[in-house]
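assembly run, all chains below
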Amino acid sequence: MSKPSGVAFRLPGLALALTQALSLVLSLVLSLTPVVTAQAAAAEESRPGAITVVSDDNYPPYIFRGEDGAIQGILVDEWRAWERQTGIAVRLVATDWGKAQQIMQAGQADVIDTIFHNEERAKVYDFTKPYATLEVPVFVHKDLGGITDVQSLRGFTIGVKAGDAAIDVLKRQGIHTLKEYDSYLDIILAAKRHDLRVFSVDKPPALYYLYKLGLEGEFRSAFVLNTGQFHRAVKKGNTALLRLVENGFAAIPASERKAIDQKWLGTSLIRQEHLRFILLAGLGAAAVMLVLFSFNQVLRRKVRERTAELAASMGSLRESEERFRAIFNSVNDCIFIHDAATGRLVDVNSRTTEVFGYSREEILALDVGSLSSGVPPYSQQDALELMEKTRSQGPQSTVWRSKRKDGTLLWLNLSLRLATLGGQERVLVSSQDITEQRQALDRLRQSEEKFSRLFRLSPDSIILSDAATGRIVDVNEAFASTTGFARVEVIGKTARELGMLASPDALQGMYETLAKEGRVDNMEVELRYKDGRLAVCSLSSQTVDIGAESYRITIGRDMTEMKKMHEMMVQTEKMLSIGGIAAGIAHEINNPLGIVLQGAQTLAQRMDPKLRKNQVAAQEAGLDLEALQRYATSRKLALFLDDIQSAALRASGIIRNMLDFSRRSESHRTVCNLECIISKAVALAGSDYDLKQCYDFKRIEITRDVEDPNLAVSCTETEIEQVVLNLLRNAAQAMAMAKPPVARPRIHIRTATQDDRARIEITDNGPGMSPEVRRRAFEPFYTTKAPGVGTGLGLSVSYFIITKGHGGAMTVDSRPGEGARFVIELPISGAGATLGAVSKQGACT
Amino acid sequence: MTTPRPLICIIDDEERIRGLLLEALEDYEEFELMSAGSGEEGLEMLTRTPAALCIVDMRLPGMSGEMFIVAAAQRALCGKYLLHSGSMDLALSEELKTLGLTEQDVFLKPATTDHMVVRIRQLLGMEAR
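ok done. output:
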């Protein structure tokens, strides 16, 4: 039996195979056992074919290893006898005690042997009657004095075996400084290395190993901690097996049992007892001799013994004191001991002096206030209150702002507790330096603050949405102000639900790229804002994991203005080059146009019957001028001549407008009164020849809203005048063309300052523009007027003058049926200083 | 009794411009007219017969219209000048302004003869007929 089980815990796989093979063999053997046994078995209700028994290992002389590593001892022999009595095969597994209990609890064994009874175990096991009584002493090194009971073990590290019953006994009495070992042998080996000076090992194995390792003289049994009895136990409730085990052992004949005891106890323990007996006998004899020889000597010896005992006791006390002092000074925490009544510092450990930079003496002379920031809630008064609270309400813990000798501050995490030391009531304060954690926390908070500010204040729209559903989790202020959607109305919704998609698949491309590449950079998408406006937005998006959730961060920038500007710039460039060419060819084209115009004029003039020279020439040629006049009228010759003239003028007008692009603006830059310029433009509009042709400007009601009549800007006066005139003309023409006609045509001109810009708003109540027209309003050669009425250059030239020439801005806002508002913004900077000079001149000249 | 008509000299390198202007002004029967194809030729003519007014093209082969006016004014060969120009680049210069020319004396081609005559009469102190 012992052979295979010995192998069992070294090579589990092989052991299992062997055990199975063995069980098979045994069951075969069993099937051939006498009929009597078989009948008895039948009466025993469900007898197992084999059982597994676990026990402690290395517990001589009960169970331990021989030279060959196989298990041997009393239990091995007894279980072998049991096997013979019951006919049930036994697999005996000896292993470290902690592990043995685990195996049993895991249900991998049927019986556990070498087990003491206690309350905990009684809950899970049913026990057999005890079969052996064992002492569990505490062994101490021979040099250690003063250990006589459990309480005197305080402060010592005590070696115990994992899972041993002694652990409970010690812990119940408040001894927690235990060091657990896997086996008794490990404990004795540790003792031999001087790692352990106190340990608790069951007496039989202790004596066995101490003797074996030559330590029997080094350690002594100080007192008996516990007396235990060996039982065998089965899983709670398995009474059939319990009975089977009990009966099996009861059936072993007394002679056989005695032989087993003789065999094992006779070889080791008995010899040990012999030795001790001889030793005691010798000592006894010596004592008797001493008594006999000299009573005086006995007395003297007694005095010496007492003295030695006292010295030992003193030494032990000193040792204990030193030990606690060492612990006190070597811990990483700062420890303060205060007098509970006065709050005065009584002691600090060396860590405290290191952290605070004071010597111990210096620190003890200070009050807590001086060791603190001193600012409430970290003042002397607060400290006293905290200690009082500890006295009245029990242990306290808090964070404290302390101050070092060099004035630097630190954060301490304090635990306060009341204690009686040397009969005095003290407040013990232990504390850890948490300055770095606090700083790290602060940095984290700052970083969080920084990023949240970045999120909130970003000029670009930022949208945080759930990656899976596309539902918006958060948006920043820029998003709200750009799109017109408030934060609360978008959270939990998708862009589609908000109606932001200009087309159903507007974001399709973005999602596809995101799925493929994980990110999208500057993808242009057309989106609809809350007010229905369509906007081109450049979106950059990325999927990120925040915690366990997967989010999509999308940053959007409204590109509508920029795109418009860009298009305008391209157009402007074009116009500039056209202007450059125009300047070169204008002269060449204007000369032939001059001839055409002049020719047509002269032709008309020479058909005029009122002109004397014509009359003379006609008379000489025998022509009736009146008849010619009638002929010309009937054949519409005058109309044709007019056509030629107006066509020539139109062509030259286009060239003149084109030339405007190439004019330099900076040359005539002066500080001008804006109101004067506008007034002049309004006056010019009233006398505008082109305008008169289709509309009477005087019918339009012009209203002015002037914030500051002295508002001055640095500009080229004639150019701004031209721009304002262009806008007035544009408004007038638009209202003239309106169908049905505008009942009370009105143009409102408002000037104001906004930041450092002067703002001119020119609003009409005309027919307004469609989005298409509005988008193209500033585009060169784009016109809605009848051919010949407008060149499509007026607004583009104006735009060019304001933006390129003056660094300003020009926008238009209009919807069909709601009139149009043009807004011009010009920088004021540099103009303010000379404002007074201009207004003093009162110069609207 | 007839007062002598003022002499007007037209300087333009393009013959048809010159010719048409001569024809158109002639019909008014208010002016004596002569013309030259260049500034140099014009100065030569004026040296022989000073004029009351010159209508000058700005862009001319050889000496420019501006140089012609300056030269003529220095030698007091003519009292008044109208600029007749094909492009804005050659508008009124500072020097011409010191000679008394104003924006009203600049006529951009193609110009209407009627407008030009109105200005000529103003400059020469003539009454419209």
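Chain B is about 40% helix and 20% strand.

The longest helix of chain B spans residues 15-26.

not gonna interpret more than that til we talk
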